[in-house]
Amino acid sequence: MILLSFLGTANYTETNYRWNDRSFETKYSVEACIHFLNPEKVVIFVTQTAREKNLEALQEKLQQYKVSFSVVDVPIGKTEEELWQIFGLLNDQVPDGSEVAMDITTGQRSSPILGVLAAFFMKTGRNVTVLHMLYGAQSVANQQDTKETPLIDLTPMLSLLDWSVAAEHFSRYGNSADLAKILNNYGSGVGKAAMGDLAEYARSRVYRSMGDQLNAVTDALYLLRPYDVMKNISDLESTIDAETQRTQSYSKVIPFSMLRAKIRDTYLPMAEKAPEEPASLIRSLTNERLMMIWYLERDFWIQAISLAKEWLLSWALVWIGEINMLDRSKREQINSLIGALIKLQQNPEKALSDQPDASFMEQIRNQIASHTDFKTFCDLWGEIADLRNDIDHAAKRTDPKSAKSLKGRIAACVNRIRELPLPMMIPGDTDENALDQSGR
């Protein structure tokens, strides 16, 4: 273990540092940390003023300990550039993959903040295990008029930075994998500590289930499984409701309570318990359209255009009376016939009556034309197919579009899809499955 500590310019006095059920009297918090932790190496960071005032006395005090000891000079931290230098010097003393403890009791006022941030960077970016982050709360001793100074381990509070990263990933990319990991770890810890307490086992299951469901939603969104997205969000909704109904607040998941509303607003509009069922058909198409917008807002261009192609085919199927969106042979048939209609639209010299499926093709064209301009539909169909092919074939063509052009044209296609009308109910069905006025 490497122990990092800061030395300041104060006039240090004897105090009794207490950590857990142990105590040690000394002027210097770093000596107490050495006594409690028994590190292999100690690194002291000092400014020039701290070196001149306190370093010699500290070194004399630490001579009795069999530990590798080094001193690193740092600037005072009066500018941003100097703060970055201190951050770099902290990291330089810790090899990748090592174990570290940090004493942030003394030093400049910026030292504790820099220590916390450096520790988090080491933990997340350099595979460093942060075992302890100790702070001697001298102010507590002063307020309670006691000579006993609690040595507080702030390491658990690093989880706040984990929560911050998880929240940023969720807000920016809709990726809840980091949230899921935190909740799963928390639920597992509760379960291990339950010791036969059935209420605690139940709490453990709630948070582990929530973690599993958040992972499932993220995987389904990223891998373009729209029906799985809807079903997994529906399951997640029930679990969030169960967690919300808990009357007791648990400190380690307080950040989740602050993110709960954002999760609801982001995911729950796309929930559907049985999206593949005919009764849910219109709601599922509405949800898929919301999903396309969700993808655009988070720069998932490939998923957006791929879903747009399948959605437009489903839209045509609905208007000609097909209710099974998973019938592959029917989808392939209608996709082929619409392609043939588009070719006829582009080559008016050929007659529809000459086609083998002329009657059915005319029915398809008439149904589509009843709800949008047929030429506009054909243009949209061709544009979406071209964009998806350009992406799926990795631009291996003579006229590939630029990334910037693709993004703009995909967004335009999705916006045109947003304008296409959906039936208020399944054509030919009763009003039992009708949409409400909001389109849900």
Task: Give a structural overview.
This protein has an eight-stranded mixed sheet with strand order 3-2-8-7-6-1-4-5, sandwiched between helices. The chain is elongated. The protein folds into three domains: 2-153, Rossmann fold; 157-273, no CATH class; 296-440, no CATH class. Helix 7 (177-193) runs antiparallel to helix 8 (198-222) and helix 9 (226-244) runs antiparallel to helix 10. It is an alpha/beta fold and 440 residues long. It starts with a strand and ends in a 22-residue tail after the last helix. The chain has 16 helices and eight strands.
pLDDT under 50 segments (min length 5)? 430-440
State which percent range the strand residues make up.
5-15%
Q: Please give the number of β-strands.
A: 8
Output the CATH homologous superfamily of the largest domain.
SSO1389-like
Q: Average pLDDT value? A: 89
**Structural class based on helices, strands and sheet pairing:** alpha/beta
How would you describe the shape? elongated
Specify the helix fraction band. 55-70%
Strand order of the largest sheet: 3-2-8-7-6-1-4-5
